[in-house]
Amino acid sequence: MSAGRPPEWQLPPGVPRGAWQYAQAEHIAQQYDAYFADNRLFDFDEQILARHFDRPGVVVDLGCGTGRSLIPLARGGFTCLGVDLSLPMLRVVGAKACAENLAIHRLCANLVCLDCLRDGLADYCVCLFSTLGMVRGRENRQRVLAHVYRILKPGGLFVVHVHNLWYSLTYAAGRRWLLSHLAATLVQRDLERGDRFFDYLGIPKMFVHSYSERELRRALCAAGLRIRELIRLHATRQRPLRARWFFGWLRANGWIAVCQKSAQTTAPTRA
User: Fold this and answer.
1) CA distances from residue 123 to 6, 81, 164, 212 in whole angstroms, order as listed
2) Domain segments of the chain: what residues?
3) Strand 79-84 to strand 152-163: parallel, antiparallel, or no bridges (unpaired)?
4) What is the mean pLDDT of residues 229-235?
């Protein structure tokens, strides 16, 4: 497959063209850490992982980017596997691991197609910074979650972050977009409620799917993942939303869900 502009039929399942170009871009990987240096969500993510991942084990990071979640875990004695569609990102992870003599394994793969990973591989799994939302198509996102369930050991934990669709109602530009978007879903059969295309870091038509809280809960439940903690994020994304009972479904910038693999012995049917 060409790394440039492959035809639509050659794109991997669930990967829109913008996401493919993003994954192949060397400049994105090289500038990623500097661009997000002040992103407070990353610090909050690390706090949540430190609180729930209370003993070393095998952790799989789906959409690991440049390894910002894996580096502190590897320092703490975790066995780490970073999975990403971007070879340039994985090369950055490798350089960081080499510089600190950390054992971080890397796999270049599409999150929808992870049959190469064996069942019960991981004690922990993460999918942060709305990486799940970058997969287009409800069925494809459910396949990712099915893989999460499959590769987790019984009782294993999964931490995922997604954006909130209804947060758009809290600011004027968001309300205008949401109104036109909801109208568009009535006439475009391939457009799901929550799908959004936008220009991002010089990449045209990047894609992200934003969830409603109800949609997120249903998706995780359908995959056999039980929510242990659902954190409604404050607008700054550096702490939980206060007074979450007061229209929290709308006011939350997004959610971080800490889930556990269910005790059932039969895996849920894949979408």
Assistant:
1) 37, 12, 28, 28
2) 17-261
3) unpaired
4) 96
Q: Decide: pTM greater than 0.70.
A: yes
d(CA 141, CA 163): 14
Contact 57, 152 (CB under 8 A): no
Tell me: pLDDT of 177 over 60: yes
Contact (Cβ atoms closer than 8 angstroms) between residue 150 and residue 119: yes
17-261, what's its fold?
A: Rossmann fold (3.40.50)
CA dihedral 40, 84, 30, 158 (to 10 degrees): 20
User: Which two tokens mark 153?
Assistant: 């050991």
Structure tokens at 73: 């875990």
Burial class of residue 79 in the structure, from the number of CB atoms within 10 Å of its CB (0-12 exposed, 13-18 middle, 19+ buried): middle
Decide if 211 contacts 219 (C-beta within 8 A): yes
Beta strands 254-261; 225-232: pairing state: antiparallel
> 161: which strand partners?
256
